[in-house]
Amino acid sequence: MSEPQRSADMSDDQVPVGPGVRTRRAMLTGAGAVGAAVVLAACGGEGDDGAAPSPGPQVTDTGDAGGGDRAGAQSLARTTDIPVGGGAVFAAQGVVITQPSAGDFKGFDPICTHQGCPVSNVDGGTINCTCHGSKFSIEDGSVKAGPATTPLPAKNIKVDGDQIALA
Q1: How far apart are CA 87 and CA 85, in angstroms?
Q2: Whether the predicted pLDDT of 13 surpasses 60
Q3: Each residue's pLDDT tens digit, 121-154
């Protein structure tokens, strides 16, 4: 639709308004509402009968879903989960656990000291940040490749039997 038409005897501030006149703003608002409705309608899938989604399986406090007892929720991993010469990033728990040599487990902060990106993996004997390419030693967190210049801070972990937890 076009702008409201004014007659030749109207001044610039006398453009017609009212319930019968459609403005550009009203047209855009209506088009936005239609677009939103289309997007929301597309979110429903086939077979969506309006029923609430299933809550999933019941969660219990009876130990480890992997089959062992990890002393409740305090254990992060089993010693067998951490490869010799490698490690694993536990971002949600705020720790990287490495095993530089058999039976020697280390913990480090998972945030790169360069610009605060989370480290992404442990590979090739280093803890790696893919944001800018920094690499840190799995033995002591020291910088192996920049741009980071500061080592990863150590985190206290404890090994109890085959369980690894934050200390």
Answers
A1: 7
A2: no
A3: 999 999 999 889 999 999 999 999 989 999 999 9
| Structure-block tokens of residue 166 | 């934050």
- Alpha-carbon gap, residue 23 to 29, rounded angstroms: 10
- Letter for the amino acid at 76? L
Q: Which two tokens stand for residue 110?
A: 């998972």
The amino acid at 77: A
pLDDT in tens, 46-90: 444 454 444 444 333 333 444 444 444 578 899 999 999 999 999
What are the φ and ψ backbone dihedral angles of 124, each rounded to 5 degrees? 65, 30
Residue reference for tokens 């840190």:
136
Closest CA to 129 of 102, 156, 108: 108
Q: What angle do CA 139, 75, 127 make, to 5 degrees?
A: 25
Write down the H helix ranges in the chain: 24-43
φ and ψ at residue 51, rounded to 5 degrees = -75, 150
Is residue 117 classed as helix, strand or coil in its secondary structure?
coil
